[in-house]
Amino acid sequence: MAVVESRPYPEHCSLGEAAEILLEAFAARELRIREMSPKDAVGLVFAEDITSRRNVPHYTASAVDGYAVCSKSTAVATAATPVALESGNYSWVNTGMPLTGFDAVVMVEDTSIDIDASGGSGRLIVSRGVTQGENVRAVGEDVMHGQMLACVGDAVTPALVSLLLCAGVKTVSVFERPRTLFIPTGNEIVAHNAWFSGGKIEAGFVVDSNSAYAKSLFERWGYSLDVGPILPDDPEIISEAVARGVLGYDLVIVSAGSAKGSRDHSEKIFSKLGKMLFRYVRMKPGRPAMAADINGTPVLCSPGFPMSCAVTLWSLAYPLLKMMSGERSEPAERYIKEAISSSETIKASLMSNHSSPAGMTEWLRVKCAEVEGRTLCWQMSAGASVLWALAESDGIAVLPESSLELPRGMEVTIHITRRIDLSHRLLFQGSDDPAVGLLVSMVKKSGAELVIRAVGSMGGLAALSRDDAHFAAAHLLDLSDGTYNTSYIKQFANGRNWHRKLIFHREQGIIAAPGNPKKIIGFEDLTSGDVMFENRQPGAGTRVLLDYMLAEHGLNSSDVPGYDRISITHLEAANKVASGVADAALGIKAAADALGLDFISVAQEPYELVFSERFDEHPTASALFEALDSDEWKSEVMRMGGYLMPVSG
Amino acid sequence: MAVVESRPYPEHCSLGEAAEILLEAFAARELRIREMSPKDAVGLVFAEDITSRRNVPHYTASAVDGYAVCSKSTAVATAATPVALESGNYSWVNTGMPLTGFDAVVMVEDTSIDIDASGGSGRLIVSRGVTQGENVRAVGEDVMHGQMLACVGDAVTPALVSLLLCAGVKTVSVFERPRTLFIPTGNEIVAHNAWFSGGKIEAGFVVDSNSAYAKSLFERWGYSLDVGPILPDDPEIISEAVARGVLGYDLVIVSAGSAKGSRDHSEKIFSKLGKMLFRYVRMKPGRPAMAADINGTPVLCSPGFPMSCAVTLWSLAYPLLKMMSGERSEPAERYIKEAISSSETIKASLMSNHSSPAGMTEWLRVKCAEVEGRTLCWQMSAGASVLWALAESDGIAVLPESSLELPRGMEVTIHITRRIDLSHRLLFQGSDDPAVGLLVSMVKKSGAELVIRAVGSMGGLAALSRDDAHFAAAHLLDLSDGTYNTSYIKQFANGRNWHRKLIFHREQGIIAAPGNPKKIIGFEDLTSGDVMFENRQPGAGTRVLLDYMLAEHGLNSSDVPGYDRISITHLEAANKVASGVADAALGIKAAADALGLDFISVAQEPYELVFSERFDEHPTASALFEALDSDEWKSEVMRMGGYLMPVSG
Q1: Closest CA to B457 of B481, B477, B436, B434
Q2: Which domain holds residue A259?
């Protein structure tokens, strides 16, 4: 896709183009140089070529533990014809000791000491001759005086620190780390301290999380970041701060104000103060990112949504920082891996179809699991506003512009960003339940890991039949006979031998706003037309239950406003009610209780785990069963309310 | 290989066994916990499960820039049948603004404002209806109050820092980083300040480089390291320091004293103070490493050679530190990659045969290049005492115990530890010459990289014929007709079209100690029996020259003491003379001058670069030729002495 030229500067450029424009614009910027001891410079970059001031070693040293000798005196020595040296004609040397008056070293294992009758100091019996210089470290064996040890652009490493020390290099000139100013903006932004001051935070206000993220990220990168005061959406004020910033910093980042809202002023400000370099990068998220050259200093505007801010820092700020640290430029791929601190790169196949926007680089936050020898991955939330997905993801898959429709099973490349051991990870897919969520940390304590993917009861059974999960859970009501799960399991297992384990019964009911303002008492009220219902996704046991109940009451789903609206979990549905977006939802009592909502009980249903007979061969399956049997878990579940534990025995 | 049980503790265990013994011994050690703000805890590990104290967002917010409306009022709106809303029935909202009195948001692109005749505030024309909750972020959409955000053992990441901030988590309990004490020992060890005090360092003394390496390494790992004063090889004193150390630290590392020299006391000290866990690890280098449990604190002894010290820290100290930081244990492979800060792992084929010691893990410091689409690697010095090889290597290949004879061309896995761009790297193999060495930093300035491997003239031509080099250099005298290179190139090129470029003539001669104590005036003297000669490797042009000269003088190589001794470079050979290990060597004047040695000139020879006709297709070939033509390089070469530049024209 070519760059759109509707402006005096490129708009909608590709990520590659944007990074290139940025690096080119400031390639000639002068870098500050400082002189310091190598040991204080680890991670910095040499601004000069470094040569050795010494020979290392600076003397002729023994390379082994043994006896220094004159090689000639041992010339004929063999095991069969050993040579005896009088004391004074040899001397013990430890590794590294200097050779004085001798020209070779006999290894201790090739000698023995023969104490003579007079009890004198003894003779050295040598059973293997040595030639001149044998087992000797020559002067300069490691490095020689004048030898080149490092060049401009090389990074200072621990190995170089010790080498330079040995080589007598006391100080080196290195490039100073660039200094960055981060300017948070937005009338709605609240500072950390205010956020924690205890006072209630009004609706419409959010904490300044981007500054905290940026600061931590820079810290992990080894760069300092100064965070300015939060500025209101006032062009004058922001303008002044940026103008001041470019004088004292090597990089200025304005947070938010990049989009087209009535309060987004960055483009105007940048154009006025300097030269816009580009606006809009064809990536998702992060599209509204922009950059300018103001008095020769790079200025970025990162979009306000947390994930958009993150990708802007990774893909635009990081390469710029590296270049301004004196490092030679790198393949873009490398920068992204470094910027997100990826420890390894793996390939995994998508668990479901994914369509990537045309002509855009897409940043996927993905989670992985290994089932039946296949490495699987799935996208977590795609929402740019969702921080959780970034914090919880295993890594980032960067889908190139070229990718469009990615079918299930297609392999994608993932840069892993957290410690994972897939062999110890259990993947649960199935009916959502907060009680199952409680298992995560208990399982973790025993060295295993439980990953939950709420896909509804049928989704879970389907996943299990595709070997896309280690175990599933279902509470599926058979509309024909009112039994639970049996018929569904039979259908999905399709001849395979699946085990089922009842872990509890739970109470389902209609969840309504506190005080039940709409006076909902039964399913009839859902069709009154005045109640907005929040439904669950097709295949969710709770949706099946709803259909069953509607049918039983002779009601028609098409008469239920909001029947087509979908929440994926009980808590999400309940939350829609709590936040007034919906008036009612069907869900479990635990969810209603958690949010202090009204609950009209309608049924009690069995909740069963389902897994293949091979499941207990999994290295950490036992960790799950132990957690399920633990009193700790059971009591926590009972505390939530709405659960009934099976009589054990 | 089974562990040898000649002692009350395992000896000669494999690296895997050693690490396992170590981790098991201290798995139960209690960790210190501290409460702090998440933003100060990046890189630390949670000591508690963290749940959200808030719903994020905590209010119903607009998810887009647009107009907040009552969904009902837009129900029928389409492009064909737009709906007009009077002012007051809609209100502009930026992304993130709260919804009050409205239940949905129309995106700005689906609207237009129709200013009425009276010039009033105007009506909103909606061309696409919205349903209740559309374009609205529900309360808790990101995370919900009470939701689990992180578990014990998770690392604190920048993403979590900002998430916890939003979630109202002010402080978290994390595990404190373990504290380590490093105790340098050895009568021969000199402290940094003394090393730089200007005074001459006596033979037999070496600077304390291991402490500097360890401190920088720990710093890069994110751990602090206290370095104690350098202790003499006195069991009492070291014993006392260790006993004190284990009281105040989580890990104590004694540097050196691990071998069998007369000054190696660590094993006795450890056994006396506590319980030895193992001694001797089947790895090369690093074999003499040992570990003990002293009052429940881990104590390591790292061998004194720099490379041995390094591998001990990587393979034993690092996993221990990670465990004592509260992290869940990892596959060993991961630890090594992390410990050496490897950014990526590649496969490359060995350029020459390598035999790895039986039953031992071997740490190879390797250099890489890419020629004709093949990624090649070769081992740099194997010497445990050689720091240069670690500093200069591209990465580490860890050869498992099982590897024995690795034939040329075999693929090995390399953990890359420096920024390399193989596509821009030129590999030179051939005759060694310091003037060529000068090209390295000049080539680097133009974004390319020149890697030099001195293998002698014939070695270079052979490498070129195997496509194991981008270019070679030779000064090979044809014994039959006294011409240089032509016949050799013809033979090795074997029909292919190779180019040759004369870059200078250089003076060869006999290098002797200052003042020429052995009174060497010609080749006859080398056969006097009283002169120890230092020869060059077979295939080196200089060795060919020697053979030619001996023949010319009717001398027999078998009459030359040291004829079979091999140095790989001119400087190395000259150095053998300078350090008295040899009396004479044949080499270039520049080498003699560099070390202030006597030089008896015997010949002037052409030094030519040789490369295939495809060479100039290489992206950075031009960088080499520019450097060769530069006055900067030419004048530096002339300054070295013994060189004659071709008359350019």
Answers
A1: B477
A2: 11-27+178-335
